[in-house]
Amino acid sequence: MLRHLPVAALLAALLNGPSGATAAEPPTMASLAWLAGCWNSEGGEAGSGEFWTPLAGDTLFGVSRTVRDGRTVAHEFVQIRPQPDGAIAYIALPSGQAEAAFRLVSVDGRQAVFENPDHDFPQRIAYRLDDGGRLAAWIEGTMDGATRRVDFPMTRADCEPAPTAD
After folding, report:
1. For residue 122, cis peptide bond before it (omega within 30 degrees of 0)
2. Which of 58, 88, 156, 158 is the most buried (most CB within 10 A)?
3. Nearest Cα to 125, choosing from 110, 144, 111?
4. Which pLDDT belongs to residue 148?
5. Could you report the per-residue pLDDT of 77-130, keeping only the tens digit for each?
6. Nearest Cα to 69, choosing from 49, 47, 51, 50?
7. For residue 153, is it within any domain?
8. CATH number of the CATH domain containing 44
9. Contact (Cβ atoms closer than 8 angstroms) between residue 74 and residue 83
10. pTM of the model
């Protein structure tokens, strides 16, 4: 019986992975802290972009604004926070629309992808922080049977407001 022990140990190691290995740890809010800061929309009118608060209280808060012809034409309030089941969700409240939640499905370094397959459009929201301070954001999914993707390229901005003349 003892002569079969090495084979059994080898089989167990192959099935269970290396000794001491644990299953991949679920993402934490700290793994998304790189999103914090001010971001200007590339090619957008002044004032267009996103602002993400620093991580505190296990929550990131974000706000986006789109300005055209000197007027805000769209905005969105966002929370990224853990849910009661432990999953992390991106909870969006866009102007003129109902709140929608998207679960974090992957985080890899400085890229995060959130999904809600039951949402009309988009079904996926993603952010990637590139080298050089560029934030690539996009939404994608299916609308009217066609796959769509909308990109929102942004660059890091100074969060201090410019002084105004009195």
Report:
1. yes
2. 88
3. 111
4. 97
5. 999 999 999 999 999 999 999 999 999 999 999 999 999 999 999 999 999 999
6. 47
7. yes
8. 2.40.128.20
9. no
10. 0.82
Q: What domain count does the chain have?
A: 1
3-class DSSP state of 114: strand
Please answer whether residues 79 and 72 qualify as being in contact, where contact means their C-beta atoms are separated by less than 8 angstroms.
no
CB atoms under 10 Å from CB of 19, counted, come to 8
d(CA 72, CA 40): 14
Q: Is residue 6 part of a domain?
A: no
Q: How confident is the model at residue 160 (pLDDT cuts 50, 70, 90)?
A: confident
Whether 32 is in a domain gets the answer yes
94 within 8 A of 78, measured Cβ to Cβ? no
Count of residues for the chain?
A: 166
pLDDT by residue (tens digit) across 139-151?
999 999 999 999 9
DSSP-based three-state secondary structure for 132: coil
Q: How far apart are CA 136 and CA 140, in angstroms?
A: 13
Supply the range of the domain harboring residue 73: 25-157
Q: Is residue 16 very low, low, confident or very high in pLDDT (cuts 50, 70, 90)? A: very low
When pLDDT is averaged across residues 49-70 and rounded to a whole number, the result is: 97
